[in-house]
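TICKET: design request
STATUS: open
ATTACHED STRUCTURE:
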């Protein structure tokens, strides 16, 4: 287990859809441990493999003393209830902007050993699961902001120490419809 460097906004791996995991082997188990250790070291609630530069569909989470991971997640939403609150990202350090997400989520996937697993999340856990699954699709929380939220986020990003003016990051439109997920365009 090793703490790994986290890729920052502007790294192309963060905008690339990750590949499904097909080998549930020692390499995957090492990746899961690196995700958990790096996430905890950075004080995050979640961390996806692309944030470590690995294009595989796996993420780790640590929310309300529940620590785990999920491989090849698929999400479903039991209702239409939404939440709106501050969201940040370890790949966009120090930036927090109110972001709409679904209040409840059910994630189905696998453990690092290939065993089926289901995670039912509400509130912060639901936000984390949606955020990390977005990473696996090459989507950042900035993509989910309305225009006012996006302007506020970019104001904070441009003022951040890590931002490099000569290499501005690209924000893409969300591939999800506004009606289902309450997304801003």
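STATUS: resolved
RESOLUTION: sequence designed for all positions
ATTACHED SEQUENCE:
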């Amino acid at each position: 287990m090793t703490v790994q460097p986290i890729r920052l906004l502007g790294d192309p791996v963060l905008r690339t859809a990750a590949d499904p995991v097909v080998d549930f082997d020692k390499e995957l188990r090492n990746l899961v441990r690196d995700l958990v250790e790096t996430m905890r070291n950075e004080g995050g609630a979640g961390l996806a493999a692309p944030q470590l530069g690995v294009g595989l569909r796996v993420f780790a989470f640590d929310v309300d003393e529940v620590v785990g991971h999920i491989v090849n997640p698929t999400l479903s939403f039991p209702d239409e209830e939404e939440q709106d609150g501050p969201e940040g990202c370890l790949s966009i350090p120090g930036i927090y902007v109110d972001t709409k997400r679904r209040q409840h989520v059910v994630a189905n996937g696998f453990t690092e050993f290939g065993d089926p697993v289901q995670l039912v999340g509400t509130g912060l856990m639901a936000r984390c699961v949606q955020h990390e699954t977005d990473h696996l699709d090459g989507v950042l929380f900035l993509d989910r902001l309305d225009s006012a939220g996006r302007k506020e986020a970019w104001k904070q990003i441009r003022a951040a120490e890590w931002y490099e003016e000569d290499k501005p990051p690209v924000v893409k439109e969300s591939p999800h419809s506004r009606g289902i997920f309450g997304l801003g365009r």
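CLOSING REMARK: The first strand starts at residue 46 and ends at 48. The first helix runs from residue 26 to 42.
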